[in-house]
Amino acid sequence: MAFQGALEIHRQIQEGKITAVSVLKQSLQAIAQQDLDIGAFLSVHGETALAEAAAVDAKVSAGETLPLLAGVPIAIKDNINVTGMPTTCASNILTGYISPYNATVIEKIKTAGLPIVGKTNLDEFAMGSSTENSALKVTRNPWNHHCVPGGSSGGSAAAVAGAMVPLSLGSDTGGSVRQPASLCGLVGMKPTYGLVSRYGLVAFGSSLDQISPFAGDVADAAALLQLIAGFDPLDSTTLKTETPDYLTTLEQLPSNLRIGVIQELNGEGMQPEVAENFAQMIELCQKQLGASIQTISMSGIQPAIAAYYIVATAEASSNLARFDGVRYGQRKKTTGDVHAMYRKTRAEGFGPEVTRRIMLGTFCLSSGYYDAYYGKAQRARALLRKQFQEAYGQVDLLICPTSPTTAFKIGEKASDPLSMYLSDIATIPVNLAGIPAISIPSGFDKSGLPMGLQILGPRLSENKIFQVARAIEQVTGYHHLLPPALAQTVAQ
Questions:
Q1: Tell me: the pLDDT tens digits for 327-375?
Q2: Cis-peptide, bond into residue 152, ω within 30° of zero
Q3: What is the DSSP letter of 320?
Q4: Is the distance from CB of 328 to CB of 95 less than 8 angstroms?
């Protein structure tokens, strides 16, 4: 399984060359062998997954044509609800909570026949860029176990990078899929806001969150997005648009391609090897793809992080008010009244980063400060959206490094929240604007850690983004590469 993509696994299952059960058993074996060191999973559900895989094999035996990706094991970030499984959000406050319903994306995955192997670790309530904020365990980068996998979807990224599953789902609020994809050498696709239903995703920032796929290559990511996208009456923010067949046109590189380089995300504060790698990617786009390159200046990028951490925390303050010890998870007993129970439950249930963001968001929404902070942040967001629209009048797509650095050491930035927040400087603008973007592997630093290239497009330009990303990955050949230690283990 480690050397095959999801689409290839699916094809072989459909043709009867392998069984879904045998693939699932390989996945469970890989988790048993590797996850003690990596820590990607919070819970593994082998029996349920084996039953789902057996149902796929029964359809093959009956001569049925399988849905797209049927039989391919998948891991789910543990802030997405799956019936009968814990949804912890990597927080103590949800101890003991078992989901009574499926998220819409899970309904689609189950209907298609992808066995759900388990739920993956994350920064608590998806708040973080390293998965160090999990209250439950540490997740390590499969390329270097001393380094973080990125966040907040670090467990989902590590599960795929560690060849434990071919596919996984994360959620992307400010880069939480693209940044760990970059740090773990994967493809991570953040779709247009509203393309994928958020129903059943535990909300962090409701105007920013999008469930997003991780995969080993562009084709697999396109297939998974195609599976989960579409209008959902249970989510009023979903778009009433037809989902294109991304796979049919994947190999068709757009002609007369115009690519913009974002000036404000090129150079300053960037690891030198990342800057050098990005220069190589610009040259590749010119020489190998025949693209014209244009520098685009966007002043709205500069205040984006400040605007994001006002908008996101304000929405988080509202969304997390429901976790009070009454309706979900744990309840702390006190000798006082119900308000004392609220205070004790939330004080002991939420970790320091979640507490910090709730307090910041509550302050920004408070009387006398709403216009000074939240209102101003929304104006900055509107400016950024306008500048993206203007940029796409000049170019087809924009590119920049996904992360200013490669994976950093565990604990290196844990005591410096501002430094951690700057890890998402290139990804946050995408969520504020509601546009799609992908991160694809673009090379390695001198320590052998992966780097990523981010490709951004206008709303609903996923097709074009996939086409260009596919063309680049075909030139570089970095897709489906395994971490050296893992490759050696597999070879043995």
A1: 887 888 887 788 888 888 888 889 999 999 999 999 999 988 899 999 9
A2: yes
A3: G
A4: no
Q: Say how far apart CA 296 and CA 299 lie, in whole Å.
A: 10
Q: Tell me whether strands 450-456 and 397-401 are parallel, antiparallel or unpaired.
A: antiparallel
Three-state SS string over 356-418 comes to HHHHHHHHHHCCCCHHHHHHHHHHHHHHHHHHHHHHCCCCCEEEEECCCCCCCECCCCCCCHH
pLDDT in tens, 367-391: 888 999 999 999 999 999 999 999 9
What is the token pair recorded at 84? 């009968």
Cβ atoms of 302 and 296 closer than 8 Å: no
Which amino acid is residue 445, in one-letter code?
D
Is-above-0.70 flag for pTM?
A: yes
392: confidence class by pLDDT, cuts 50, 70, 90 = very high
Tell me which residues are annotated as active site. Answer: 77, 152, 176
Helical spans, DSSP H, in 214-261: 218-228
Which amino acid is residue 245, in one-letter code? D
Q: Residues 142, 162: contact at Cβ < 8 Å?
A: yes
Measure the N-to-C terminal CA separation of the chain; round to a whole number of Å: 14
CB burial string 166-195: b at 16+ within 10 A, e below: bbbbbbbbbbbbbbbbbbbbbbbbbbbbbb
CA 428 to each of CA 156, 271, 313, 433: distance values in angstroms, whole numbers, following the listed order: 19, 19, 13, 9
Domain ranges for the chain:
6-260+392-491, 304-380
Closest CA to 253 of 397, 402, 389, 434: 397
Beta partners for 120? 41, 77
Under 8 Å between Cβ of 25 and 31: no
Instruction: Give the whole-angstrom CA distance, residue 102 versus residue 199.
Output: 9
CATH class of the 6-260+392-491 domain in this structure: alpha beta
Residues 6+ apart with CB under 8 A from 358: 313, 316, 317, 320, 350
Give me 261's structure tokens: 């380089």
Helical H runs in 413-461?
A: 417-421, 428-433
Burial code (b: 16+ CB inside 10 Å, e: under 16) for 406-441 equals: bbbebebbbeebeebbbbbbbbbbbbbbbbbbbbbb
